[in-house]
């Protein structure tokens, strides 16, 4: 891969293993490289809205004549996807409502099919990179191992007629590789569209001070500089949400990727005080009170995630989720400032519930509290800040507050011109959206 892309070089980074670095200067917003997915899958929840093959969003998609569940732009896209869709088409028809493999199992099935095809033709560099992808199968805890075992069971149940499987140990390794190296493909508002494997992009190591950002153009990943880079600089992305303080970020990295970050920000913890800002009071707040509230906040986040899953399973009503958000915000607000990241987290969840309930005014009320702290706490050219401007701009438009909507959309566009490139179709559509107002 790197040999064919000017300005990039693969190397062994001390303590990190495989890595990429630049061999020439790159400016902010400049494209380092674009990478086609080795394998990808559209989320089942987005079927009917996006083309299974190219991930284009449009009205009037044509459905597969057999299963009636996959949708395409045209015959060309349908033919292009058949090698992968045939793994599922007959199974969906046979199992009907009982067809329910996880997205990870679906992606692994496609990787196995792709590997078989490539072995029959030749061993490509991209296939070799798949084999080199990091695996921590020996490090995963019991819960994650049980999830992998469940995925393997689904693989055998739903795909046994179309695939030959490697032995159990190799399947566990492959699922671990996908967990560590898979990418969530997202739209302009960071909504989940699908999952993909990009072996070239997987070479890039993590930093909480990233030099590049990964965005998506259809099913391709694009890597652009968010800092000026000079020859010899390592290419670094963030694997996680950077909003949270150092301890929380590293907990997430250990749980998901089995390492601790030692970047300059993690060493200095320079933003932690602002991220954990306290409410001003006449008497100083005792350290024990603060630590107890942090523990309460973390427990509340875990509980909300559990309730959210119940809601997705039609058990917990949205009103219960919103009530929990409001109660948690009230409790945390006795100690935390409104710009504290745990407050922001729960406000963002409340905003999402309001949107689900079509409470536009409620969503705007929470969004307006979130935006300014986001700008201060996230790095420049953050997709999280961009998606908030997009959401707010579109909500203002719904409320016919066109001046505020256009202002927010233009701020989003300024970020996207760096993160997505000035010619990205998201920007083309937004320019049309603004012009119509």
Tell me, briefly, the overall form.
Answer: globular
Helicity range of the residues? 40-55%
Count of alpha/pi helices: 15
Separation, N- and C-terminal Cα atoms: 44 Å
Order of helices and strands: EEEEEEHHHHHEEEEEEHHHHHHHHHH
Order of adjacent strands in the largest pleated sheet: 3-11-10
The biggest beta sheet reads: 3 strands, antiparallel
Give average pLDDT, whole number: 91
Would you report the number of β strands?
A: 12
User: Number of domains in the coordinates?
Assistant: 4
Low-confidence stretches: 122-128
Judged by helices, strands and strand pairing, the structural class is mainly alpha
Radius of gyration: 23 Å
Percent of residues in beta strands? 5-15%
